[in-house]
Amino acid sequence: MAEERSGGEKDEKRERSGRGVSRRGLLIGGAVVVGGGAALFHEELGRLWWRVPGVDKQRNDGDVDHRGAQWIAASEANLRYADRPADFTVDRVVIHVTEGSYATAVRVFRDPLHAAAAHYVVRAKDGHIAQMARELDVAFHAGNREYNERSVGIEHEGFVDKPETLTDVMYRSSARLAADICARYGIPVDREHIIGHNEVPGATHTDPGRHWDWDKYMRLVREAARRST
Ligand SMILES: [Zn+2]
User: Which CATH number fits domain 1-229: 1.10.10.60, 3.90.950.10, 3.10.290.10, 3.40.80.10?
Assistant: First the structure.
């Protein structure tokens, strides 16, 4: 399941407050004066502008990155605005199992106090997909700042100790989603790039667990990738 952000993310969140933004604005202004040249100004802006909320890409309610997904916005407290893949290379898909129901996952990701969310939640009974964070944004799901920045997180309704909760229709729907993500960012379809939450460096979570059928999942992702090309 999604995991609380690291300490670094908390600092980042403070930066997003009004005070942090204006301080950032002063820093950018200061760079202009110090450098005295347009080149440095643009270099500074190029490095920093994405940190300032409200100046990046248009965010339209209802727009989704994966066709057929349903947009259900997570609380913005559980993610960080970014402009991926322009500011961070996206080269990992992180697989989670929620240890709870689809409805619970959707509810807690909408809760600003939960401190975690994934980009997608897949429902067990029919493979329905909720997109809760935009792929351009960094969702707090991996418990590792670098891996949050470089990955798209997929939650699956179910329990790691109850293999019967991991349904065939959910595997298939998720595999189509993972293949779509890999195609859009040029991510190789292999186990180095499609990983479990437990494989994130420093992970304290064990999901998706020993019953997650990686052989089946990777076969389905490869098939979906082949069909779409
Ligand atoms: Zn997880």
Answer: 3.40.80.10
